[in-house]
From TrEMBL:
<dbReference type="GO" id="GO:0005829">
    <property type="term" value="C:cytosol"/>
</dbReference>
<comment type="similarity">
    <text>Belongs to the thymidylate kinase family.</text>
</comment>
<keyword id="KW-0808">Transferase</keyword>
<dbReference type="GO" id="GO:0004550">
    <property type="term" value="F:nucleoside diphosphate kinase activity"/>
</dbReference>
<keyword id="KW-0418">Kinase</keyword>
<feature type="domain" description="Thymidylate kinase-like">
    <location>
        <begin position="9"/>
        <end position="188"/>
    </location>
</feature>
<dbReference type="GO" id="GO:0005524">
    <property type="term" value="F:ATP binding"/>
</dbReference>
<dbReference type="InterPro" id="IPR018095">
    <property type="entry name" value="Thymidylate_kin_CS"/>
</dbReference>
<keyword id="KW-0547">Nucleotide-binding</keyword>
<dbReference type="GO" id="GO:0006233">
    <property type="term" value="P:dTDP biosynthetic process"/>
</dbReference>
<dbReference type="InterPro" id="IPR039430">
    <property type="entry name" value="Thymidylate_kin-like_dom"/>
</dbReference>
<dbReference type="GO" id="GO:0006227">
    <property type="term" value="P:dUDP biosynthetic process"/>
</dbReference>
<dbReference type="InterPro" id="IPR027417">
    <property type="entry name" value="P-loop_NTPase"/>
</dbReference>
<dbReference type="Pfam" id="PF02223">
    <property type="entry name" value="Thymidylate_kin"/>
</dbReference>
<protein>
    <recommendedName>
        <fullName>Thymidylate kinase</fullName>
        <ecNumber>2.7.4.9</ecNumber>
    </recommendedName>
</protein>
<dbReference type="GO" id="GO:0004798">
    <property type="term" value="F:dTMP kinase activity"/>
</dbReference>
<dbReference type="GO" id="GO:0006235">
    <property type="term" value="P:dTTP biosynthetic process"/>
</dbReference>
Length: 220
């Protein structure tokens, strides 16, 4: 029996991730397919509440410490993700480990160190990167409300995302122009994921480990 597909949606702040993952959830549900939408950070857990306070600039933490908290927040749900996938449920994630790496590395932390805490997490079957310039993102409502929504940092994050994308095959990492209308972006996103509706027959891979579909990123 096929397992459920693991789909991650990444991008800069205000790139439209929340809108697109909600659209995906709705379309899969309309087709009668079991789907679970997860968002990282998950701000409902004990760790997530610490992260939420940090992102809202209500607390201060060392850059290394907050990075490890973000990773721990993902590990909190790793078993749940695997269980859902094995039950045949499609899992759609609004942000995943790639955001953690990109934002921390953009602040000056070592890229390989940033990857290390997330090694062996469940790997997405496909990651959709919603690409938008920081200037375009700034035009959207609510920009600047949280700690990381600063143009200079967002430009650095975009550069790190570009580097990360080179570690994966074209089938595993798909870049979508997110500077267009919501409808045009949604059409592209669906075209890339609709084939996963029937499930996945290959084994679930592990993030940043050597296997036939993923390069050894630590030597990239």
């Amino acid at each position: 029996m096929p397992r459920g597909a693991f789909i991650a949606v990444e991008g800069l702040d205000r790139s439209g991730k929340t809108t697109q993952v909600t659209n995906l959830e709705t379309r899969f549900q309309a087709a009668g397919i079991d789907v679970k939408l997860l968002k990282f950070p998950d701000r409902t857990t004990a760790i997530g509440k610490m992260i939420d306070a940090y992102l809202r600039s209500q607390s201060e933490l060392d850059d290394h410490a907050i990075h490890l908290l973000f990773s721990a927040n993902r590990w909190e749900l790793a078993t749940t993700i695997e269980r859902l996938l094995n039950e045949g449920t499609i899992v759609v994630c609004d942000r995943y480990a790639f955001s953690g790496v990109a934002f921390s590395a953009a602040k000056g932390l070592d890229l390989d160190w940033c990857r290390s805490p997330d090694v062996s997490l469940p790997a997405p079957d496909v990651t959709l990167f919603l690409d938008i310039s920081p200037e375009k993102a700034r035009e959207r409502g609510g920009y600047g409300e949280e700690r990381y929504e600063k143009e200079e940092l967002q430009r650095k994050v975009r550069t790190i995302f570009s580097k990360i994308s080179g570690e994966f095959s074209a089938e595993k990492w798909v870049t979508v122009d997110a500077g267009r209308s919501q409808e045009d972006v949604a059409a592209d996103v669906w075209s890339f994921v609709e084939g996963f509706a029937a499930g996945v027959h290959s084994p679930l891979q592990r993030l940043w480990t050597r296997n036939e579909n993923e390069r050894d990123s630590f030597n990239t």
